[in-house]
Design brief:
The protein is an alpha/beta fold. It has 2 domains: 111 residues, Urease, subunit C, domain 1, CATH 2.30.40.10; 298 residues, Metal-dependent hydrolases (TIM Barrel, Alpha-Beta Barrel). 40% of the residues lie in helices and 21% in strands. The chain is built from 15 helices and 17 strands. The protein has an 8-stranded mixed sheet, with no helix packed on it. The longest helix has 20 residues. The radius of gyration is 21 Å and the shape is globular. It starts with a helix and ends with a helix.
Length: 453
Amino acid sequence: MISRTEVGRMAALFLRAETVLPLGETNAVWSPGAVRIEDGTIVEAGPAGAVSSAGAAEIDVGRAVLVPGLCNAHTHLYSSLARGLPPRGPDPRTFREILETLWWRWDKLLDPDTVALSAEAGLLESARRGVTAVNDHHASPSAIDGSLDRIAEAAGAIGLRAALAYETTDRDGFAKRDQGLAENARFAARAAADRSGRIAATIGAHASLTLGEESLAELVRLAALTGRPLHLHMDEGPEDGEGARRGGDRSTVGRLARAGVLRPGTIVAHAVHVDDRDIEILAETKTVVVHNPRSNGGNAVGRAPLGALLRAGVRLALGTDGMSGAVAIDAAVAGAVHRMAEKDRAIPFDLPFRLAAERNAEVASALFGIRYGSIAPGFAGDVVAYAYRPPTPIRPENVAAHWMLGISESPVTHVVVSGEPVLVEGTFVRVDEEEILDRTRAAADRLRNAFHA
């Protein structure tokens, strides 16, 4: 197996698999297939005999299916160590109570070390789920300064791509808000100077319900100054719209549009409580809406009107909202729940595949300034091997069905990011997974005790 010292020395990598599915603009099936990656970019891909291995390190993933890596378009790595946290007091009755009794207590407990450990735990799980890029939305009010660097360092150590933002909010006062703005600005400058395509910045904001007019204006100004997109929550619960209407706006979407927040590139998570006019505005402004179905179900906030969003041409993507690293599971939930609940033929059978494999690739391409989501020359060298044994032949016309119902549910054996191995034969080659998880479990216990103190 490739050693940790060998990883950084690879100028070229050749991978061979029993089946390669390039995805992207083609539904080709190469059996066997191969890909050659040089300096982080795919230079050759196709039937195994047509791809050169000369001078390259070689990995044969064996009886597996090789596909492009996935992007998680909205997550919260800081929530990784809260998994299994017992509730504190009675179950929350509203979404705001969930925020106040869980997340707005939890994020204040994080220090620089637990910020890093949370990121490591979430990124390890992401890689094991076939994710090679994450769009993370971070909050740690007691440790704002430098927090995005700690997450970037964790991503660099493990080997994944990470687009990062700090959650600017008024909920802890203007001094903390200004710290959040400064952290976004500082990290945006760092990411702009990085030429690896491995880190990127967005300008983070919590949600309309915790941001005043001045704060929205500052966020819009910072996004324009840095040239980076805004990334925020929108209409996850009814509280966003109620606050906007109290302030004289028709809706949350109306308020954010008036403030200049909604525009091409802006990423909003959820959009559960939107109406037809809101949807028209989201389409007109070319705002990206990231659907997070498992989180919406877990918080009992409702479900986004996926059929209406699709018909209107809204730019959709898929996230986990920090529930886990398994964006493919959210894809499956989105397809099943919405087709069952809405009985809407505008929601196609292959929606999970289209969202996770195609729409999220568009988000990653825009965030990192690379071509992402296809095994083809010129695209980023991010590929994942799944130990999938198809019960029926994989053909161009059924690639989506095999991806949804088999490939994405199978164990991940290999992960390569920018041409560098991250996971080989089920083992991380850059970090000691068990040593990290020993530390994350100990930290989770400490945080749990502090949460319940």
